[in-house]
Known about the structure:
It contains 15 helices and 11 strands. It has about 350 residues and is of the alpha/beta class. The chain folds into 2 domains: about 45-140 and about 275-349, Bordetella uptake gene, domain 1 (D-Maltodextrin-Binding Protein, domain 2, 3-Layer(aba) Sandwich); about 145-270, 3-Layer(aba) Sandwich (D-Maltodextrin-Binding Protein, domain 2).
Amino acid sequence: MIVSTVQTPPRLFPKRALAFSAAILLLPAQGSASAQSPGEFYRGKTVKMVISTMAGGEYDLSARLIVRHIGKHLPGNPNFIAVNMPGAGGITAANHLFNVAEQDGTVIGMIGRNLSYQALVQQKGILFDPLKFHWLGSPDVSHRVCVAIDGVAVQKAADLFERELLVGGAGAGTAVSTTPVLLSKVLGMKFRLVEGYGSPNAILLAMERGELQGICVTLDALRGARPGWIETGKMKLLFNTEQTRLSDLQAPSIFEFAKTDEQRRILALYSSSVELGRPIVAPPRVPDERVRALRQAFEDAMADPALRDEAEKQGFAINVVRGHELAQRVADLMATPKEFVARLEALTR
C-alpha cells in the first residue's frame, strides 16, 4: 500500500530494476494461485475450448458437445465456451495453445489427429512439441476404412489382389488420397486413384453416378454422409486400417494382409494418427493438479448420461481414449526411427 503511493522519479530505477521489483511484488500472488486447489482456482472462471477447425464439422460438433457438459464435472464448476481457430490444417490452433494461450488451465483445445505425425516429419510452420502437451483424452476413435459400392468386381479385401478398384481422391496429402496410394505400393493392392473430387462427399456422389467404385475415409464420415449404407449392403466394407479389426463389422484389419515386419511397421506408423481420435490437450505449463482435474472431468463428462443421450441423438459414437493412453501413443509415434518415417513419406508422396 505505502509502496504504491511513493512517487519515485523514473530515472532512479533502470528498466531491469523495475522488472525485478515487479517480479518480487508478484511472487506472493503467484504462490497463492499455485497453492489453490482446482476447485478454488476454477470457481467463477471461464474456460475456453479452442477448436482447430471451422464450425459445423465433426471436430466442432464433438468439441461443443463436450463443452456443454464438462463444466459440471470440473471442481469449481467453471463456465466453458468454444472458440473456433481454423487455419493451416489445424497448425494455427496447436501453435496458439503451445505458445500463446494462458498456461494456467483456463484454455484447452481439440486439435487435429494428424498434427503429431506432422510434427514428427517436421512439417513447415509447426511450432510445438507434441510430447510437451498435456493430453486430456479423446471422445472417440474415427476408424479409417476402405469401401466399395455394391455390384462392382471388388466386394472383399482379397479381391484387391486380383481386380482393380477405381477410387476417388480429395487432394494430395489427404488421407482419402494417400491411403489407396500407400496400400498399392506396400501391399500390392490394385487401387486406381482418380483425383480432382475435392471432398469425400463429392466422391460419394460420383460413386452413386457410377463414375467411381470406392473410397477410403473415416467410418464416422461415411456413416454420417450415407447412414445405413454399410448395414444394408449398399457399400461393402473391405477393411479398416488399424491393427485390430472392428468387432461390430464383418471385415478384416489391413494388418492381416501384411507379410513382413517392415510392412507392419509402415502400416502402424500410418494408422497412428487415426488412433488419436479427436484429441483434447492442455498447454505444456498447466500445473499437474489442474491437468489431473481436467482429465477426470473429461472422463466423467463422457460417462454422463445426459451427454451420452445427446450424442446418440446427434449420431456420435462414444469410444473414449483416456489422457494417459493418448500420451503413450504420442510418445510411441515420436520415437519412430527416422528411416521408417522417410520410407512412409516416400510411399505416400
